[in-house]
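Support request, please re-run this one:
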Amino acid sequence: MKQETNQISTEEKIMPIGGQAVIEGVMMRSPERLATAVRRSDGSVELKIQEYQSLIQQKKWLNIPILRGAITLIEVMILGIKHLNFSADVAMKDAQEAEEAKNPGKKKKNKKQKDGMSTLSAFFSISIALIIGLALFFASPLILTTHLFNLEKDAFAFNLVAGFIRITFFLTYIYLISLMKDVKRLFQYHGAEHKTIYAFEKGLDLTVENARKQNRLHPRCGTSFLVMVLLASLLFFSVLDSLIMLWYGKINLFIRLITHLPLVPVVGGISYELIKASARKPDHPLVKLFIAPGLALQRITTQEPDDSMLEVAIIALKAARNEPYEYMLPQAQAVSEAS
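Re-run finished. Output below.
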């Protein structure tokens, strides 16, 4: 009898499972649902499960190259903020309980805590973050390059210098936040997310032992995506500036700002397609060279997790795939679900 295998096909594993680290936990996303597992201070795991279908799944006509990448990027950011907020609520709950334990006689404030975050609130938070991100990583390099270098008429040289400044800002930002204690733990959960997804993609049983053996660097990570956006923007805006100069006869800082900034989502869509295409032949030498910068940066944005973190990531992935996860939890641990 031919032995069956649990190996996941290439097509099935290209983009079906995603995730992100949250405060003391991991959020996992499958095509049908989202699940966020958070480790509480008493060792228990609190779990939030949400049925979910992306806009592209609901509206098939949106599933076209580049556009789908831009839409996915916005959706993932909104979902990420909402589930990060859930983990923050759990952390606040632990802090309040610890405070009450230290001061048992202290009168408890009678405040109703609003659970979760609305899509509108998440969209507002994302909008603020995008404005700050665009100003820091896209507008300021254009301004600095214009005023510090005489390169305005050379589209490629201008964008090469601006791209170098942009990447320098980004790497400096990543390095500085990596020095923070809480961010280091977040990066450990990021590593747990990657190791668990790798175990799933290889068709292995989702156990802590199997996940522990996996690589923490994953080519389809959000870190790799951001690196791809930075590199793709260099070439994309070089071509755009050349076309503008050919058509309009000149270009300046104002023209660059009003043309570059609105097209950043397009660059994101292109980067999404490049990452997706690279997943089809991950062992090709050119693909390995292509994804190397993102993997190198993940040596900072992911750290080796401990077994308890891997357990949390596995619970989140099992719940996202609607697989049994209760057996992984001791009876004393409480799991709550919210839709």
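The mean pLDDT is 83. Residues 67-102 form the longest helix (36 residues).
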